[in-house]
Write a sequence for this structure.
C-alpha cells in the first residue's frame, strides 16, 4: 500500500467556457478515507469542478491526480448524480447490475445476489429491485443511485447534492447511510452539498468555493471562523445557530 | 490473483488468499464452486490482501452453504474487513418471493384482450372529450384557440406539402408505368388512364397521404403531448382550471381535419401529374390524349369519394395520437413506446376505415 495520504490532488486547475473562467487556479487535496463537503454559490462552479474531476469536462490547465488509484478507469469512481440519473429503461436491480456486467463476468445467480445485497445495504428490500425508476420515490431513487454508484466498491465516491429534494428526516437518514457505508467500505467521499446538517453531521472537512478558488478549507468549525466575506455571508446565521446549539 | 486452499491436513479449514475483488470475480466464483461446503468449519482470512463486497459475499455464501451456518467461523480477519463481513451477514436473508414466473398462455391472452378493450375505451373516451370540447367552443366561439390551430395547420399542412406531393407524384408514375407494362400485352394501353384516374382519386391518393400524415404528424402529436404529460404541464393546466383537451388536443385535431383534405387534393393532383408524365415518357401517350381520356374515365363521384374520406381519417389519426400521448408515463422508454404504438394503430385504423368506406360507398352506389 502506498503511504500517500491523498485520494485526489488538484493543482492549479483552470476550467472555463469561452471567455468565462469558472475555476481559476484552484488547488485542493482530498484525503484518503475522509468525507469532504464542497459548498459554494449557485452557479459558482461546484458542479463544474466535480464534473472536471470525474472527467466529464475538459480542463484548460493544471493537474488532477488520483494517487490512490492512478491507473484505474472511470468505472472505479462511483458518482451519484443530483437527479439519480437511473437508466429509465432498466429496473432498479438491473441499474445496480449494469456496472457489474460491464466490468466483470459474473454468473447470473451471483449478479442477482450481489445486486440484492447492494440494495439491502442502502436500506431497500430485494423486492424493490423489480421497480422501475418511474415508480420510485425521490428518496428511493437516491438510494438506488447510491447502490449503483457503489456497485463496484469504488475507492472514491462523488456525490452531487445527495440530500437535495429530500425531507429533513429522509435527508438525515441518507446522511447516516453514507456515513455507515463509508465506515464499512472505507471509501473517500467528495460531496457537493448545501445542507448545513450534512456538513455538520458527516463531513470531516468542508471546502468553500468562491470566485473559482477554495476560499476556506478545514473542519466546519474552522471554516465558520474564516473571515472571507463570501464564506461569512454564506454561513451567516448558521454560525449563530451552531453557537446556540453549543450553549 | 485470488486463491482458495484447504489448510494442510485439515479439510475443515479454508485458507483464502490474494485479492478477492470484483476484477477477479470469475476466478473467485470458480474457486468457490469447487469447495465441499458440508465439511467447512473455519475460514481463515489472514492471507487475503484485498476484499470488497463481492468477495465478502462469496465467503458469506460459503459459510451459509455449510450444514449449519453458525458452525462456520471467520478467523484472523484483518481489522479493516470486520465491518464489511458483519454487514454481509445480514444481507440477502429474505428470499424474494417467486414473483418472476412466466405468465401462461391463457394469462397472456387475457392481458392482451384487456389491452384491446382498454384501447377501445380510451379511444372512445378521447373522442367524447373532444366532442364536448368542440361543442363548448361552438357555444362560446371566443374560447376556441385560434392561434394554435393556425400554427398547427402550418406545421401539419403547409410544411408537409413538398414531401406529400413528391411521394404521391412518384406513386402515380409507378402505377402508370406498371399499368402500361402489363396492359401492353393485351393492347389495352389506353386503359391505364382509367387505372390511374380511378385508383388515385378514390383510394391511393387519400390512403398514401393519410399514412404519411400518421407517420409525420401523428407521431409528433403523441411525442409532444407525452412529454407535456411527463413534465406535468398537463397537470399544471388542470390545476389552473383549463381543460387540456380544448387547449392542446382540439387545435391539433382541428388542424389535422382541415389539412388532410387539402393534402389529399394536392396529393391526388400530383399523382395524376406523375401518371400522365409516365404515360407520355414511357407509354408514348401525349398529354392531350391523357387528359381527354381522363375526362371520360373518371367522374366527379370518384373525386368525392376520395375527398369525403379524408376528414374522417384525419380525425382517427388525431384522436389516436392524443390518446397515446396522454398514456405516456414517467420514462423516456414509455414515450418511445407510445409514439410507436400511436403510428402503428393510426395506420391500422386508417386502412380499416378505408375498407368500411369502400363497403359503404359500394352499397349506396357511389
Amino acid at each position: 500500500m502506498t503511504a500517500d495520504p491523498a485520494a485526489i490532488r488538484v493543482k492549479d486547475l483552470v476550467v472555463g467556457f469561452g471567455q468565462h473562467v469558472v475555476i481559476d487556479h484552484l488547488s485542493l487535496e482530498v484525503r484518503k478515507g475522509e468525507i469532504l463537503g464542497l459548498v459554494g454559490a449557485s452557479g459558482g462552479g461546484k458542479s463544474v469542478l466535480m464534473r472536471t474531476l470525474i472527467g466529464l469536462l475538459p480542463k484548460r490547465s493544471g493537474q488532477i491526480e488520483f494517487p490512490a488509484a492512478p491507473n484505474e478507469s472511470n468505472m472505479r469512481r462511483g458518482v451519484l448524480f443530483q437527479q439519480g440519473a437511473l437508466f429509465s429503461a432498466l429496473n432498479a436491480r438491473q441499474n445496480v447490475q449494469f456496472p457489474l456486467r460491464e466490468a466483470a463476468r459474473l454468473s447470473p445467480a451471483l449478479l442477482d445476489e450481489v445486486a440484492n445485497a447492494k440494495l439491502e445495504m442502502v436500506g431497500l428490500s430485494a423486492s424493490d429491485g423489480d421497480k422501475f425508476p418511474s415508480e420510485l420515490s425521490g428518496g428511493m431513487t437516491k438510494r438506488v443511485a447510491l447502490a449503483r454508484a457503489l456497485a463496484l466498491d469504488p475507492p472514491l465516491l462523488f456525490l452531487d447534492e445527495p440530500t437535495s429534494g429530500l425531507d429533513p428526516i429522509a435527508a438525515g437518514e441518507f446522511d447516516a447511510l453514507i456515513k455507515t457505508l463509508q465506515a464499512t467500505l472505507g471509501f473517500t467521499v467528495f460531496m457537493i452539498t448545501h445542507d448545513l446538517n450534512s456538513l455538520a453531521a458527516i463531513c470531516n472537512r468542508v471546502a468553500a468555493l468562491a470566485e473559482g478558488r477554495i476560499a476556506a478549507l478545514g473542519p466546519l468549525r474552522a471554516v465558520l471562523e474564516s473571515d472571507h466575506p463570501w464564506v461569512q455571508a454564506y454561513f451567516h446565521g448558521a454560525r449563530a445557530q451552531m453557537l446556540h446549539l453549543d450553549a | 490473483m485470488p486463491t482458495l486452499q484447504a489448510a494442510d491436513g485439515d479439510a475443515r479449514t479454508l485458507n483464502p488468499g490474494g485479492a478477492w475483488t470484483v476484477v477477479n470475480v470469475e476466478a473467485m466464483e470458480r474457486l468457490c464452486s469447487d469447495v465441499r461446503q458440508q465439511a467447512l468449519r473455519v475460514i481463515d482470512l489472514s492471507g487475503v490482501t484485498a476484499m470488497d463486497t463481492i468477495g465478502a459475499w462469496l465467503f458469506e455464501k460459503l459459510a451459509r452453504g455449510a450444514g449449519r451456518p453458525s458452525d462456520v467461523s471467520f478467523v484472523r480477519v484483518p481489522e479493516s474487513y470486520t465491518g464489511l463481513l458483519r454487514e454481509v451477514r445480514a444481507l440477502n436473508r429474505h428470499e424474494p418471493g417467486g414473483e418472476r414466473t412466466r405468465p401462461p398462455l391463457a394469462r397472456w391472452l387475457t392481458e392482451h384482450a384487456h389491452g384491446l378493450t382498454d384501447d377501445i375505451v380510451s379511444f372512445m373516451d378521447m373522442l367524447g372529450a373532444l366532442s364536448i370540447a368542440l361543442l363548448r367552443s361552438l357555444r362560446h366561439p371566443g374560447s376556441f384557440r385560434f392561434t394554435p390551430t393556425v400554427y398547427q395547420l402550418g406545421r401539419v399542412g403547409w410544411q408537409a406539402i413538398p414531401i406529400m406531393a413528391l411521394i404521391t407524384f412518384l406513386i402515380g408514375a409507378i402505377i402508370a408505368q406498371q399499368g402500361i407494362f402489363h396492359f401492353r400485352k393485351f393492347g389495352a394501353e389506353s386503359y391505364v388512364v382509367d387505372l390511374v384516374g380511378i385508383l388515385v382519386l378514390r383510394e391511393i391518393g387519400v390512403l398514401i397521404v393519410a399514412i404519411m400524415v400518421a407517420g409525420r404528424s401523428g407521431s409528433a402529436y403523441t411525442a409532444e403531448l407525452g412529454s407535456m404529460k411527463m413534465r406535468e404541464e398537463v397537470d399544471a393546466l388542470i390545476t389552473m382550471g383549463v381543460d387540456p383537451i380544448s387547449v392542446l388536443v382540439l387545435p391539433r385535431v382541428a388542424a389535422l381535419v382541415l389539412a388532410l383534405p387539402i393534402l389529399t387534393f394536392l396529393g391526388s393532383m400530383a399523382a395524376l401529374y406523375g401518371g400522365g408524365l409516365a404515360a407520355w415518357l414511357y407509354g408514348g401517350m401525349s398529354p392531350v390524349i391523357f387528359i381527354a381520356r381522363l375526362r371520360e374515365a373518371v367522374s366527379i363521384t370518384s373525386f368525392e369519394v376520395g375527398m369525403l374520406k379524408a376528414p374522417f381519417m384525419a380525425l382517427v389519426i388525431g384522436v389516436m395520437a392524443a390518446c397515446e400521448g396522454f398514456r405516456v408515463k414517467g420514462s423516456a422508454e414509455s414515450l418511445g413506446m407510445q409514439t410507436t404504438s400511436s403510428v402503428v394503430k393510426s395506420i391500422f385504423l386508417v386502412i380499416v376505415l378505408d375498407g368500411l368506406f369502400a363497403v359503404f360507398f359500394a352499397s349506396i352506389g357511389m
In short: The mean pLDDT of chain A is 82. Strands of chain A lie at 6-17, 20-31, 35-40, 61-65, 77-80, 156-160, 188-192, 205-210, 213-218. Chain A has two domains: 1-69+155-215, 88-154.
